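Input set for joint prediction.
Command: fold jointly, output tokens.
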Amino acid sequence: MTAETPGSAKSPKTPGSPESPETTGSPGSPESPETTGSPESPDAPGSPQSGESSESPAKSAAPGPRALARRRRRASVARFWKEYRRHRAGVFGLAALALFVLVALTAPLTVGSDVERVTNAPGQPLESPSGRFPLGTDQFGRDLLGLLIWGSRVSLLVGLLAAALSVTIGALIGITAGHFRGWYATVMMRITDWFLVMPTLVLAIVLATVLSRSLGTIVLAIGVTTWPTTARLVRAQTLAVESRPYIERAKALGGGHWHIMSRHVLPNVMPLVLAQTTLIISSAILAEATLAFLGLGDPGVVSWGGLLQDAREAGSVSSGDWWYLVPPGVGIALVALAFTLCGRAVEAVLNPRLGVSR
Amino acid sequence: MGGERPPGPPPRRLTVGAYPRYVAGKLAGAAVSLLAVLVTSFFLFRMIPGDPVKFMTGRRPVSAEQIAVYRREFGLDLPLWQQFTEYCGKALTGDLGTSYQFRAPVVDKIGEALPNTLLLTGTAFVLYTALGVFLGTRSAWRHGRLGDRLHTGLALTLYSIPSFWLGLLLIIVLSVGVDPIPGLFPTGGMESGSEEGFARTVDIAHHLVLPVVTLVAVEYGQTLLVTRSALLDEMGGDYLTTARAKGLRDDLVRRRHAVPNALLPTVTLVFVNLGRTVAGVILVETVFSWPGLGGLFYQALSVPDLPLVQGLFFVFAAAVILMNTLADLLYPLFDPRVGR
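tokens >
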């Protein structure tokens, strides 16, 4: 394995061809030693944090690698947050998300799973909004507000899981294709390119049709079709990271493939992956709604897209029952927008040159 | 990205000899992709658990002999590799099988629906591209101002809205009518069927308004955002300062210098975007019962009518591949640095 080491470490074209990935990585690593360096020196003699200095004087003089790493990480998170706060839209998105997550998590307490039951529904079919049912009722007489809140759980969960799956596949393929050169990378990038040209949603629809109807299928269909952009970005970043001298040092010291990829490449790729995740969640939530609306979702669970399909089947479009249609769509749009705003803010912080929200 | 030359040897102008080779390469790539789509579409639809005949017959009770007849009719009794070679051979001669649902060749059903989809997407495509490029340019040129923030915000919001939901709302407000507003547009379909000649054209245009508005609303945002950020990238360029220093009027600097350079990423995006439009059109056609490929896809999905789904999947993927190839072929004509 060390046979290819010198070649792959020196080969990268340093004259600045991968310019933008280089800048993406920079806020993570090269600056952090500086920032950790400055709080460290006043820390040792002054000891404002009694908790750390009370451990042992010897330790504060030369903190262990773990403690150093932890401190560096905390400093970069703080710096990230300070930058992030300057993007007002991003803060708004984050606040909206926190609210939605809170509502979804507390749903069992506020509404309970009884709202899903078709039998023994509390109201008359298709009541318009009233004091008792603030958003009216559906064709079975179920409380629409309750269903909306309950449905947020499925929409958020599927969005998060699908994005997690998508980003995991993308990061895995991106890192390995960037690390191992040769035929493996060629094959992987061919596959990626092929997925990239396919119309994502059409492929997801076909997968959801062919497989059985369940939430797992939806997560799989969305996850398997949306990873290629992540893979490309991560691969570019991996190539940039692996051209740095400390990777060569790690290899010279006998670091194996796994060590290099997990300890050196992954932490540097992480910020990019984070930004990508936030953006993918929003499209995954939209995709889930779309699949459910086309009748490809799990018929047994309530989701926002499923509610819209129910509304359409109940004829609420032609009878003008707007209160049945408006809330689920607003929910989908708000959550998707919130994730998009967060993603753009994260991207702008990590890569100021991108100019997305300039 | 755009402004400065990349390091290395100075860019060579596109010579007459280089372009055909570039074209040949891109066309070969497209052919390989199409073949890959064909192979995938075959195997994807063999993943379904159970007998496809069961799908076809639905819940109707069918005798064993009848199932055998069906299986022979659709070639399902042959071994897999034989089905595959037969499928590929037929596909190359333009035969995509027989629809379970309509008992008609898939190609015929697609041929019927294709012009309707082209009418809808074509109109929407022209409108949202023009709107996106126009607003994106203005937004970038006056970035940070109120107008820019409003446009960007609106584009992002519309981008987050599911197209089918927007369509449903438009139907409720403008077709069914909410109290003060009367129903202005038809709720769906492509024509009333009673008109002839010029009146028919007007009638179709009338039916076209809402679906086109929906598609434009959900799609123009992306074009706007990309045009805007491409132009913003360009705006620091020294050549713009030079142009201004020469005393050129602001709008001339914008139109003659900045915009042409910034349009390059937009050109690619415009074509790549068609992939998204394909998905959008499926939903919009479903909502407005437009008799195009998307509406047909929805009908095929609900059965599911596998040969039809398979054929449409192939057509949609092929359309996107062709558009990407077209973008690749056009790109060097705009930017001589591409395509050696």
